[in-house]
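Here is an idea for our session: we take a single protein and study its fold together. To get us started, please write out a protein record for me. Start from the sequence, derive the backbone structure tokens from it, and show both lines together. Go ahead whenever you are ready, and we will take it from there:
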Amino acid sequence: MRVIVQRVTKASVMVGDELISSIGRGLCVLVGICKDDTQKEREYLARKVQNLRVFDDESGKRWCKSVKDKNFEILCVSQFTLYAVMKGNKPDFHNAMPGDASKQYYEEFLSLLKKGYNAEKVKDGKFAAYMQVHIQNDGPVTIQLESIPDIHFQIPENRVGPRAASGSKTPVAVVRGQPQDRTIEKASGYIAIFTSAFNGDDTKQKQFLKILQDYSEGSIHHIPELILSAVDILHGEKELLCGFSGFLPQGFSIFLENNDLQQVRIRCPAVEDMSVEELKQHVEELKSNEASASQSSQNKVTRAMEELILQLSRLLSS
């Protein structure tokens, strides 16, 4: 799920000559729904929108009050085009959730906003209609928020610290990686699965640590190149492949089409989902374009990845 939040002095939605909704000061929220979104994505972004601190307090201190704190209004507008990917010069929307399902999902998102705030303060456009959206941006302030998949790791039964007993596969705990939270538990849980999957053989761990360090230090310039190396090392390990998404920058992920290990797919921002072979071609194109190697957006080391590198380094040096 992806939303564009704009701080506004006023906003309104028209369909033809009919005024559908209007608000004064508050937030205008453009809402995009992905075909893979679940209840957790909806709940996470509803909380984020309500608590996003983009307003000043009474003394003029900036970025310290939410729409709820200020008792302002929210205008939501459904916008499937937020999940466009380009096929040449033409946008394609296959990643957006289909009509009937997305309508229900969107209505439930609105219900969460109303329940968590004030139903009278939350307004709406007209789903699937051709709308004219009038936004008077205040600032301007425009922020993109995106849900992050809930990554869960099953920890072997007799794991103590980041090292797991060889061959143990009995799950006794689940560590859920929340956005910008629990990075230590997320990393240790992932390493526990790693150790169990390869029966304590640290060869794969060393290979994996090296590509993470190479990316962190700049020897690997692009996230897609890092993903390609990781897919090669983690081949055949479903939890490790999909779980690695929780350590990547926002917008990047690895998933299995139809839950099939033979159909590994990679998602990158602003491009169509790729197979491993297509990813290889994409990486070659990036390498051939020297300018792209300096793009900071492709060279971000997340907090979770930093923690994973730290814990792996400690484990392998012990």
